[in-house]
Amino acid sequence: xxxxxxxxxxxxxxxxxxxxxxxxxxxxxxxxxxxxxxxxxxxxxxxxxxxxxxxxxxxxxxxxxxxxxxxxxxxxxxxxxxxxxxxxxxxxxxxxxxxxxxxxxxxxxxxxxxxxxxxxxxxxxxxxxxxxxxxxxxxxxxxxxxxxxxxxxxxxxxxxxxxx
Length: 164
Prior knowledge:
This protein has 164 residues and is an alpha+beta fold. Helices cover 30% and strands 19% of the residues. It has 4 helices and 5 strands, in the order βαββαββαα. It is globular. It starts with 27 loop residues before the first strand and ends in a 10-residue tail after the last helix.
């Protein structure tokens, strides 16, 4: 079993713990590409250069599907985050997280309330060699730790502003 990754310590129990304090910030810029439409022919680039890819619309939405789409990227983030949280709680119980897999399905559909769009996410965890009762208990702990799980349950603070 690999050594666990270091996890930042929680804030002290004082006024500082009552505020959100970022420990990592990702910055990604999406441009529109040939069609001037970020979803259809966009380009996504992270500020640190580690992500640089073309975005494409899936066939089901009339695209050519020659690159990843936003739903795939969200599914990747959600599955990876939950996998990481489950690996952490597994190691805390001296269990090997190596066989864990998380499959995320993210569906885009119409919002019946306003005709816009909604997402639905479904995740399936496979953990061979661990009893169902133990896996369920640890999965419940992991979903409480995973910020993507929290976001899908509680929402996420966000702002959308126009640059000056």
